[in-house]
Each structure stands twice: as structure tokens, then as C-alpha cells.
Design a protein that fits this description.
The chain has 266 residues and is of the alpha+beta class. The protein contains 7 helices and 5 strands. A hairpin with a 4-residue loop joins strand 1 and strand 2. Helix 1 runs antiparallel to helix 3, helix 1 packs parallel to helix 4 and helix 2 runs parallel beside helix 3.
């Protein structure tokens, strides 16, 4: 995706999040974040938006603390969230292509990193806000969802902080049937290693002879495969949808290894 696409999508996701939060009300429970209410979701996401904007506008080249979550509620909290979101979007729009500032995952540039990271941050929390309403979720396009899976698997879980570990090496395959994207995640006692390959036309690619996950493109056999739409996989891997939302083949314990240990922090 282009940086302009990230920023435009971020702008829309923030508006959708605020609209859902306003409709649900500050005291509504957030099913996808057990123990959270909408007010906490707004405080957290608004804090992250302001924290990220600081790196962009101030050019901090080392980690910088966030400003904390405000003691706001109701309409005042919604106004605060919307103002911070607008500030983040405008800061990204105004930033130079050669922006220099701190980042915490590999990216083509700091501007690309913060645009992508804040889009996925806001999208996931928009899903949280909409989950409080109990209705359908706003769709995430296949290409954008696949890009978000890339960030999660190769970015967040390529870092030493990842808790997805196994004393016995395991392989998890993630296959987006509506794109050509396939990810092979090798899990061991070290940080996961993920390789993205492609199957033209998003073809199945599994041999299916034994009902297991099969191989992809003549490569290694996976212990477990998750397949589905890119959107379904994106939200499942972020633990916003249950494993039942995608198709699971092979050893379910490998998928549980992911869902039980994949929560991330920056």
C-alpha cells in the first residue's frame, strides 16, 4: 500500500471508531477486550494517537513516553479522541517523505511505519468499538487486511518480545483464499520466523490427501493451517474473531499456541 492510502484509511477508521463509540455509550462493555468499556478504549486509542503524532511532529529519534490517559468521560472524552485523531492524520499528511524519527519495527521509512502502524492500531480498535454494538463489522478490504497480517506476523512477532514460542518446533501456515498470500510461521524457542510466499489466484495449495494442512508450493509441511479471507484471518490473528471464523486443518494446539500467546505491546 502507498502511504497516502494508509493515511486515508486511517482517517476513515478513526471516524468509524468514534461513531461506534458514540452510539454504544461510554459504559458499554467491549466483548473483544474483556474487562474494558468504551471509555477505556477511547482513552487508550486517543493516547496512542497523540503519542505517535509526537514522533512525527517533534522528530524524536529515541523512545519517548506517552502523555497518559485522560480522566475524561462522555462527550468531553469523545471530543478529545476526535481532536487527537485529526491531529495524527494531519501530522502524517504534512510530514516530509524523508521524515526522520524513532520507530520500533522495520519499515521502508519512518513515515511509512507510523502511517501503517496507526492504521492497524485504529482498525483493530474500531472493530472493538463496533463489537460493543453487537452488529456487523465494517469490512476491511482484502489487500489492506493482507498488509495488516504482514505487519503482525513479520513485524510484531519477528521481534524478541514475541511470546509465541514452543520447545518443540512447530509450523503454522496462514492462507488467504481471496489473495495470493500465504505465510509460513516457524515457531520454536526463538522468536517466530515468518516467510510470505504466493500462490497464483489464491489457490488452495494443500495436498489434502490426509485431511491435514498439506504443503505449499512443494515446501515444508505445516503442522497446522488457518485459511480464510484475508479479513477473517487478520481479525482472527489479532484475536478479534474466534478460531471458528476461519478454517483450521491439522494440529489445533498450534493454533492455540498462537491465540494464547500472541497479544502484543509496542
Amino acid at each position: 500500500m502507498e502511504i497516502t492510502e494508509y493515511i486515508a484509511s486511517l482517517s476513515e477508521e478513526g471516524r468509524l471508531l468514534a461513531a461506534a463509540a458514540e452510539q454504544a455509550g461510554p459504559g458499554a462493555s467491549v466483548p473483544t477486550c474483556p474487562g474494558w468499556q468504551i471509555r477505556r478504549l477511547l482513552r487508550h486509542t486517543g493516547m496512542v494517537h497523540r503519542w505517535a503524532a509526537g514522533f512525527i511532529t517533534e522528530g524524536y529519534t529515541t523512545p519517548h513516553p506517552d502523555g497518559g490517559e485522560p480522566d475524561l468521560d462522555g462527550d468531553e472524552l469523545l471530543d478529545w479522541f476526535r481532536a487527537g485523531h485529526r491531529h495524527l492524520v494531519r501530522s502524517l499528511e504534512a510530514a516530509p517523505a524523508d521524515l526522520e524519527c524513532w520507530t520500533f519495527m522495520p519499515a521502508p521509512s519512518p513515515l511509512a511505519f507510523w502511517s501503517r502502524r496507526q492504521l492497524n492500531e485504529t482498525t483493530v480498535h474500531r472493530v472493538d468499538a463496533e463489537s460493543a454494538l453487537g452488529g456487523p463489522l465494517t469490512t476491511v478490504g482484502a489487500d489492506r487486511a493482507a498488509d495488516g497480517i504482514d505487519e503482525l506476523l513479520t513485524g510484531f512477532h519477528g521481534r524478541p518480545k514475541s511470546r509465541v514460542r514452543s520447545s518443540v518446533p512447530r509450523t503454522l501456515r496462514v492462507r488467504a483464499v481471496d489473495t495470493d498470500a500465504v505465510w509460513t510461521v516457524r515457531i520454536s524457542d526463538a522468536p517466530p520466523q515468518t516467510v510470505r510466499t504466493a500462490v497464483p489466484g489464491g489457490a488452495d495449495g494443500g495436498d489434502g490427501a490426509d485431511g491435514g494442512p498439506g504443503t505449499q508450493g512443494g515446501g515444508e509441511r505445516a503442522d497446522c493451517e488457518l485459511s480464510g479471507t484475508a479479513e477473517g484471518l487478520y481479525l482472527t490473528l489479532w484475536n478479534r474473531l474466534p478460531l471458528a471464523a476461519v478454517t483450521l486443518r491439522g494440529d489445533r494446539s498450534v493454533a492455540r499456541l498462537w491465540t494464547d500467546n500472541s497479544a502484543v505491546t509496542w
